[in-house]
Amino acid sequence: MRTMRKALLIISLFHLSLLFVYPQGNSYGFLKKDTLVIGNTLIERKFLWNNGNLKTYTLTDKSSGQIWFNKADSPDFIISKKNSEACNSSHTVIEVKETVVHPGYLEVGVLYSLDRLDIKRVYRIYDNCPAIACDTYLKGITDAVLDGKVGNLADMKNIEFAEDMKSRQVTAVLDQIKLDGFHWQTRIVEFNDVTDWNNNLVFETDIIPYRKNSYKGNLLLAHNAEKEKGFFFLKEAPSSNVQLAYNGYDFTTEFGHFMVNGLGMSEKDIKEDEWRKTYSCVIGTYSGSEVDQLTALREYQKNIRKLLPGRDEMVMMNTWGDRSQDSKVNEKFSLIEVEKASRLGITHFQIDDGWQVGKSPNSAIAKGTFKNIWDNPDYWKPDPQKYPNGLHPVVKRGKELGVEICLWFNPSVQNDYADWQKDARAIIDLYNACDIRTFKIDGLAIPTKESEINLRKLFDTVLHETDYNVVFNLDATAGRRGGFHMFTEYGNIFVENRYTDWQNYYPYWTLRNLWKLSKYVPAEKLQIEFLNKWRNADKYGNDEFAPVNYSFEYLFATTIAGQPLAWFEGSGLPEEAFSISGLIKTYKGIQHDFHTGIILPIGDEPSGKSWTGFQSLKDGYGYFIFFRENHPDENGILQTWLQKGVKVECTPVLGNGKPITRTMGHKGAINVSLPSVNDFVMYKYVIIK
After folding, report:
1. Which phi and psi angles does 524 have, rounded to 5°?
2. Nearest of 546, 563, 394, 404 to residue 469 by alpha carbon
3. Which of 38, 216, 358, 572 is deepest in the core (most CB within 10 A)?
4. End-to-end CA distance of the chain
5. Nearest CA to 680 among 622, 621, 606, 617?
6. 324 CB contacts (<8 Å, ≥6 apart)?
């Protein structure tokens, strides 16, 4: 009897340990009776257990003590109109250890079944982060239709009676919350990549939610005007128009009811014996003004991948911007370019298409193809005619000069990346044999769920086999790719191709795209180009915004809020260009400190004639970058993200500015002076009052 009691006590203690989990950090997750609770020091979300088919009960912003009560009757996740009873429910709480790629976090998993469909919801909670992410996995069989198109509101009946207000059912809901109040000032942000065709990358739609309506976008920011508090939903998916099984919208609002829609898979993509991941969703809370809202979002985004100085910070040079394509690429050319890169102060030299045996469709010297790459087993080996000694002499010289050698790579897209293992092995072999760790990933096409899964397997395998040292520059210029909110854990984003040859490089265009993206996407994740302004100057004629009308230093400065990309051949530069080396050297000294802040746009939108810039907010200090474009006034007044009355002491670190001390005016306005047009200054500021 005593032995049985002891066994029962051990079992009881074991179950109690599953109910209450407090790891070494401040994140926690536990199931107590009918309530699942997950959170940390800044946010908490309570759910009614509902046999695993969770219903949010409260969402708490711990920074202010604000508790939001969910009024929705339905579960948070909806895949079908059928009201099936959940069964086979269970939960797990796992502490995921920190790696060289990501911080540690707590993972709370909830598993349940609806008829023949198994559902797994995995919540990620990072310490000291006011947001909770949710990854959803499906397995089994469902009769739901997941890719139906949204109807047109014009086809709805006019409203004369209360019965007429009943609106259509939304079937696939990733997450939702229904809150009290009618005064929800809401912004939906839509993003465009495919930047070979798009030069307008961010679209903001401001609404006050009314009757049920749907919107495109990856981000929804909701501010309650009565309480001056709110929350955000982030859909971790490609840009709206290239999502899988897309039903035409990402968010649905109805008064205080907010839903995230679109799973990124159709019912045909769900397999009986394999877990398949939908798009992920993040909810975060904040109290205060817009800067608090954006800071909450950014604190989550900065937890997706660590930013390490020796790995992720870079001033890269890639010669493709001068349009020689692969016609010059060989050992001699690469060695010359490494020397030029070193003189400029470049940290990474990337050899684009042309280093390999195989010829791509973009080759200037042969009609190549991306189809059936592995018909040639040597496709991804250094071309022995161009590199008779392999890549080793170039890598060796790069190390001597402090320049890391990087490569371009195009995965074999046919049959939904069926050859992903061969692609992964090719990258791993280049890492092991040649010490190459940074790869520009180009030519991606993700038209199916199978292709997305295999592509992720490729990336994960490479990272695992290289101790997570490889960095991917993910090209966002064409095709169906990850956009600005998916695959971001793998590296940074190559934003755009621009060329003086086609007169589609204008410094203020590039600055504008970075400025607009930086409000909602970490600027330090974006590779931003500057070009050889002396090339093709005659093609621009008398255009006042032509690159030649700006200093080379200014062109570099337009990129520094992101990761600068020297998009040119160093050997094609005039001697005067190398005077920029001092500026680049100084920048590298503060690059990481600047990038670890919350970088947000300030001033007016770049137009070629604006006062504009960026601010990096840190604890007690930060950085300003001010640009005087071709603006008639040498004194600019720019709104910043500091509060009125804050006094700062500003010390110039780059550009042409004098030390200043300023007290912030209305809406954080600061007065700045630059005597010349098309000039800039970067300040480090310290808050002194």
Report:
1. -70, -5
2. 404
3. 38
4. 71
5. 606
6. 364, 569
E strand or H helix that includes residue 588: helix 581-595
Provide the CATH number for the domain around residue 17: 2.70.98.60
The answer to the question of residue 427 being in a domain is yes
Cα–Cα distance between 129 and 135 in angstroms, integer?
17
Q: What is the three-class DSSP state of 259?
A: strand
**Dihedral (CA of 224, 300, 178, 26) sign:** negative
**Cα separation, 686 vs 579, whole angstroms:** 30
Query: Are 376 and 459 part of one and the same domain?
Result: yes
Bridge partners of 231, per DSSP, are 222, 285
- What is the rounded CA–CA span in Å between residue 595 and residue 14? 45
Average pLDDT over the chain, rounded to an integer: 93
Neighbours of 548 (CB within 10 A): 13
Query: Of 641, 646, 628, whose CA–CA distance to 688 is shortest?
Result: 646
Q: What residue numbers bound the domain in which 14 lies?
A: 2-148+168-301
> Do 367 and 416 have their domain in common?
yes
Query: Is there a single domain that holds both residue 367 and residue 291?
Result: no
Last residue of a domain, one of 467, 494, 521: 494
Query: Is the domain of 361 the same as that of 436?
Result: yes
Residue 223 in domain: yes
What token pair was written down for 165?
A: 């207000």
Going by their DSSP bridges, the two strands 316-318 and 471-475 should be labelled as unpaired
Q: Are 101 and 468 in contact (CB under 8 A)?
A: yes
464-467 CB contacts, 8 Å cutoff, 24+ apart: 465/424, 465/428, 466/428, 466/431, 466/432, 466/437, 467/100
Dihedral pair phi/psi, residue 664, rounded to 5°:
-65, 135
Give the span between the Cα atoms of 629 and 532, in whole angstroms: 19
Q: Contact, 231 vs 59, CB < 8 A?
A: yes
664 and 644 Cβ atoms separated by less than 8 Å: yes
Give the separation between CA 134 and CA 80, rounded to whole angstroms.
Answer: 19
Question: Minimal CA–CA distance to 455: which of 484, 496, 494, 427?
Answer: 427
Count: domains in the chain: 2
- Residues 425-481: pLDDT tens digits? 999 999 999 999 999 999 999 999 999 999 999 999 999 999 999 999 999 999 999
User: What local confidence, expressed as pLDDT, does residue 147 receive?
Assistant: 63
Q: Are 262 and 253 in contact (CB under 8 A)?
A: no
Is 375 part of any domain?
Answer: yes
Q: Which tokens belong to 439?
A: 């790869």
- Same domain? 387 vs 261: no
Tracing tokens 């739901």 back to the chain, one arrives at 144
Give all strands of the β-sheet with 20-21 in edge-to-edge order.
Answer: 20-21, 28-32, 35-39, 43-48, 55-61, 66-69
**What is this structure's pTM?**
0.94
Distance, CA of 40 to CA of 63 (rounded, Å)? 11
The residue among 494, 520, 543 that closes a domain is: 494
Order of strands across the sheet with 213-215? Answer: 173-178, 257-261, 251-254, 213-215
Altogether, the residues listed in the chain come to a count of 689
Q: Are residues 16 and 119 in the same domain?
A: yes
Residues 177 and 45 in one domain: yes
Q: In the block, which residue shows the tokens 């929705």?
A: 72
* Residue 484 near residue 238, CB atoms below 8 Å: no
Q: Tell me, yes or no, whether 403 and 461 share the same domain.
A: yes
What confidence score (pLDDT) does residue 21 get? 47
**311, part of any domain:** no
Q: Summarize pLDDT for 648-664 with one digit per residue, the tens.
A: 999 999 999 999 999 99
